[in-house]
């Protein structure tokens, strides 16, 4: 009996020792026991800081960055500082990352965030660092890992219409794109100078080129002015009653949630598309291990909650996220959602999209 008791005491002592050796936040989840993850964490700790440069709203500004930084540090028992600076639009930032890489200099940002249209140039330049994501983070959905681990699709957006909920209610809320061509909306509609998301109508699997061009010409006669994505305040004030189309539902939803403004977004039944946004670790990142570890965190269910809290962004591929629920809800209503990812900008469809972008920009800005 005494020997049995001593054996039990020894077993409990060993279990206590194992738990004590696991970093804070891992005792219940166990990923720190993955040797490759442990190695990445150790390498990340030596880097000490992370630089993020991106367009306004990408990381939720200083407040959002602080939310992500604190959760990231807690998750992996780190003590790193994330330095955030507002940068240019995504295509311009892509060019900057490529320029510094070709010049043999360190990237301004350790982690590049870009939409699908920016990815072909990133891939062609060979600037994206590849990584065996699922060996280290087995929970990352396979569908979000693209081009041999060079791209991680971390956020999916649903473009549509942003509208003033005080002025547009009930049956007047547009459900289909054709609804915005009603005479009552003439002069009260805004679009963007870059024809945001309208070009997604052009491929044959959506509307087709000629039909989409005819619609944009008709829309240009309804437009009262041009605004940028991110200027939801101009919709809330009533300067314009709707934005056709927006850059994704996340911006309007975030603005309404944070300010209480009378703004909402709607996804069109006859133009439901899903846009993709990516995280890329540049090969010339100064802190590539921290950037890689942050991606792994943000792609976890826990990390997606943090990301949504900071930026109102989430992945449709991660179960239970707002984007995942929205995707399922639309599918349940019988709405067909056309997905646009990096591959959409390659080959024949890529040519159609790029041509549509150029022509639609001219139409909305010049009326041609």
Pick out its properties.
368 residues; alpha/beta; D-Maltodextrin-Binding Protein, domain 2; 2 domains; 5-stranded mixed beta sheet; 13 helices; 12 strands; globular
Q: Which class do the helix and strand fractions yield?
A: alpha/beta
The run of helices and strands is HHEHEHEHHEEEEHEHEHEEHHHEH
Second CATH tier, the architecture of the largest domain: 3-Layer(aba) Sandwich
Biggest β-sheet strands, sense, barrel: 5 strands, mixed
CATH homologous superfamily heading of the largest domain: Periplasmic binding protein-like II
Into which percentage range does the β-strand content fall? 5-15%
Q: Could you name the CATH topology of the largest domain?
A: D-Maltodextrin-Binding Protein, domain 2
Furnish the topology, listing elements before pairings.
Layout: H1 2-21, H2 35-47, E1 49-54, H3 61-76, E2 81-86, H4 90-102, E3 112-115, H5 119-125, H6 133-136, E4 145-146, E5 151-157, E6 161-164, E7 189-191, H7 209-220, E8 223-226, H8 233-236, E9 242-244, H9 249-259, E10 263-266, E11 273-280, H10 288-298, H11 301-311, H12 322-332, E12 338-340, H13 347-366
Parallel strand pairs: 1-2, 7-8, 7-9, 11-12
Antiparallel strand pairs: 3-11, 4-5, 5-11, 6-9, 6-10
């Amino acid at each position: 009996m005494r020997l049995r008791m001593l054996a039990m005491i020894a077993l409990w002592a060993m279990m206590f020792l194992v738990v004590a050796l696991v970093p804070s936040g891992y005792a219940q989840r166990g990923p720190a026991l993955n040797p490759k993850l442990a190695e990445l964490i150790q390498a990340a700790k030596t880097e000490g800081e992370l630089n993020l440069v991106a367009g306004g709203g990408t990381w939720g500004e200083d407040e959002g960055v602080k939310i992500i930084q604190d959760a990231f540090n807690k998750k992996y028992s780190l003590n790193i500082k994330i330095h955030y600076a507002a940068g240019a639009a995504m295509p311009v930032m892509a060019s900057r990352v490529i320029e510094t890489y070709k010049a043999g200099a360190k990237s301004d940002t350790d982690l590049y965030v870009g939409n699908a249209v920016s990815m072909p140039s990133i891939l062609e330049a060979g600037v994206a660092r590849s990584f065996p994501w699922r060996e280290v983070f087995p929970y990352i959905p396979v569908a979000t890992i693209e081009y041999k681990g060079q791209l991680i699709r971390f956020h999916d957006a649903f473009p549509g219409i942003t509208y003033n909920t005080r002025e547009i209610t009930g049956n007047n809320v547009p459900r289909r794109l054709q609804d915005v061509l009603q005479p009552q909306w003439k002069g009260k509609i805004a679009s963007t100078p870059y024809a945001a998301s309208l070009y997604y109508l052009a491929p044959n699997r959506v509307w087709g080129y000629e039909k989409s061009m005819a619609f944009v010409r008709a829309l240009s006669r309804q437009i009262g002015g041009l605004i940028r994505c991110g200027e939801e305040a101009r919709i809330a004030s009533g300067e314009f009653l709707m934005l056709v189309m927006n850059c994704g539902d996340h911006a309007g939803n975030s603005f309404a949630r944070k300010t209480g403004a009378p703004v909402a977004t709607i996804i069109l039944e006859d133009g439901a598309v899903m846009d993709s946004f990516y995280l890329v670790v540049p090969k010339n990142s100064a802190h590539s291990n921290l950037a890689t570890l942050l991606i792994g965190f943000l792609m976890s269910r826990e990390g997606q909650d943090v990301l949504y809290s900071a930026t109102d962004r989430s992945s449709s591929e991660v179960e239970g996220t707002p984007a995942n629920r929205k995707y399922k809800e639309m599918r349940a209503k019988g709405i067909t959602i056309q997905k646009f990812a990096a591959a959409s900008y390659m080959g024949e469809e890529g040519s159609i999209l790029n041509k549509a972008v150029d022509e639609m920009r001219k139409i909305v800005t010049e009326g041609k």
